[in-house]
Amino acid sequence: MEKKILIVDDEAHIRMLIGQTLEELEDEGVEFLTADNGAAALEIIQSEKPDLVFLDVMMPKMNGMDVCQKVKKELAINDVYIILLTAKGQELDRQRGQEVGADVYMTKPFDPEVLLSKAKQVLELD
Length: 126
What we know:
Elements: E1 4-8, H1 12-22, E2 31-35, H2 38-48, E3 52-56, H3 64-74, E4 81-86, H4 91-99, E5 104-107, H5 112-122
Parallel strand pairs: 1-2, 1-3, 3-4, 4-5
Helix pairs in contact: 2-3
């Protein structure tokens, strides 16, 4: 079955950067989806059921924490692996990320190698 990654960020250049970081996964048959706000991300998660979501925290319409909480706690879609990406690295933010059900909490700027290896691990492409 084809694997899907959803990249959610309100900044186009960050979506592009993550896409470029992960582009070698296309050779493995991974499909990429993108959204520029939380509300759109939620719709895509429900309709497309991506395997992995890179989710920005601070976004318009619905922030990443709220999206994560809705997916994991309210809709109980547990087979979606959510990585929260944020410029906020305080411990309180990390705790909040765990509370809403995020699988991993990464701070920006992120290390492209770490991002790629995490994606491969989650999608079992190693």
